[in-house]
Amino acid sequence: MSSKQTTKWTLDPTHAEVGFSVRHMMIATVRGRFGAITGTVTVDEQNPQSSKVDVAIDAASIDTRQEMRDNHLRSPDFFDVAQFPKLHFVSKRIDGDPRNGEFRVIGDLTIRDVTREVELKATLEGEGKDPWGNERAGAEIQGVLNRKDFDMKFNQALGSGNLLVGDKVRVSLDVSAILKK
User: The pTM is what?
Assistant: First the structure.
């Protein structure tokens, strides 16, 4: 990273993905992604634990490769994108030193106008110059959320005794960020 005390990085939306997986009928897993993500990372070089992350996700960009399911996920039963178009994460603190590779990012996640503190495990994947002279850094981030914590309570009991949708949602982000000069 730069020798400045504070550096600001911008997520590259063409090299960033937010993925998720959730149990379906308690017998299979449905995977999806959000295709539109923006954000910044402000790194405090002297005190990395004070670094800040601010990420916004366009809720309508959800994609599970099945149009009918995606439309249902955009509806008031789930994300209600007409009323709540963005998911937003703002860090509160960093535990561990990102320069050592693995760390935790603790912050507030807002979905459907409900804000909850979440903890995400992060791994700094590397840094380097791209072919156009930009300084880049990459990270992989993972966590587990309970969708009911964000007022997404839709479900349906099945004849087998199982529920249609699991409550636990695994999230994973693969991001590349570019140093702002």
Answer: 0.88
Per the CB < 8 A criterion, the answer to whether 10 and 55 are in contact is: no
Beta-strand runs (E) in the chain? 6-24, 28-34, 37-44, 52-58, 62-63, 86-95, 102-111, 114-129, 135-146, 165-179
Better pLDDT: 8 or 29: 8
Task: Write out the two tokens for 78.
Answer: 């789930």
Q: What is the pLDDT of residues 115-126, one digit of tens each?
A: 999 999 999 998
CA 102 to mean position of chain CA atoms: 17
pLDDT at 22 over 90: no
Token code pair at residue 82: 């007409």
In the block, tokens 């990270």 appear at 139
Q: Domain locations in the chain?
A: 6-179
Q: Among 132, 96, 105, which Cα is nearest to 39's?
A: 105
Classify domain 6-179 by CATH number.
Answer: 2.40.128.110
Whether 70 contacts 61, CB under 8 Å: no
Tens-digit pLDDT profile for residues 151-176: 887 666 556 665 467 788 899 999 99
Amino acid at 63: D
Q: Is the Cβ–Cβ distance between 9 and 16 less than 8 Å?
A: no
Residues 102, 121 contacting (CB under 8 angstroms) = yes
Tokens of 152: 């997404």
